[in-house]
Structure formats: C-alpha cells, structure tokens
Design a protein that fits this description.
By secondary structure, this protein is of the alpha+beta class. Helix content is about 30%, strand content about 25%. The chain has a domain of about 80 residues. It has 2 helices and 4 strands, in the order αβββαβ.
C-alpha cells in the first residue's frame, strides 16, 4: 500500500509541474465588428417586449444601443429599427455591419427599461 501512495503522490507532483509550465500564448486575432442583438421575449414565438444591441470588436464592446420597448410596433417597424441599428454601428465602427452575428434571448422580466409595463413603480 505504501508504494501505491508514493506513486500517486509522484503523479500528482508531476501533474502540478506540467500545469505550472504551461505557456500562455498571445495570438493576435483580427478585430472584426460583430453586432449582438438582445431580444426580450418569453419565447421566440411570443410578442417582442423590448430589444437592445451591442457592437463588439474582438473582446471589446465599442458601442451599445440602449434597450427600447417594442410594444405596439409592427414587424416592419421592428425590422426598420434593426436596420437603423446596423447602420448606426456601421457609421460608428467605420466598417459595414450587415447583420447581427449573435442573438441573445432574455426573459421580459429582465427588461432593464424603467418605467416598464412589467415592473410598475
């Protein structure tokens, strides 16, 4: 049994040494604009409560559109709003942002807008 414990201890020490010797490489990644849309709705089929958006360049958020309520907006009005957001991001970033690269679904209870019909004050 003692030999077994010594081998386990040695293996543990070797594993620690390998982890401590791990090199962290800094690889330059091209900074391309990536627009992210935030949908506030219960499900994808539910009415849209609100939306917000962010523009990212690599690991940095460089622009943000504050969330806005979409209550009463038609589908065409929401699409027009999304095109305006992309156009604003294009102007800010100096590069054409043609589409949203990522989509985040959030429950309407997480709506950050105040006052909000779901959170009367």
């Amino acid at each position: 049994m003692r030999n077994h414990h010594r081998k386990q201890k040695r293996r543990g020490e070797q594993g620690t040494a390998e982890i401590g010797a791990t090199a962290i490489l800094d690889i330059p990644v091209p900074a391309v604009p990536a627009a992210v849309i935030h949908w506030y709705r219960e499900t994808k089929d539910a009415p849209l409560h609100a939306l917000g958006a962010e523009l990212w360049m690599g690991n940095n958020r460089v622009a943000k559109v504050e969330s806005v309520h979409c209550l009463g907006l038609t589908e065409l009005q929401v699409k027009t709003l999304l095109l305006r957001v992309l156009d604003g991001f294009s102007q800010h970033g100096g590069m054409k942002v043609e589409r949203f690269r990522s989509s985040v679904e959030l429950h309407p209870q997480n709506c950050p807008i105040r006052p909000c019909p779901l959170s009367p004050e």
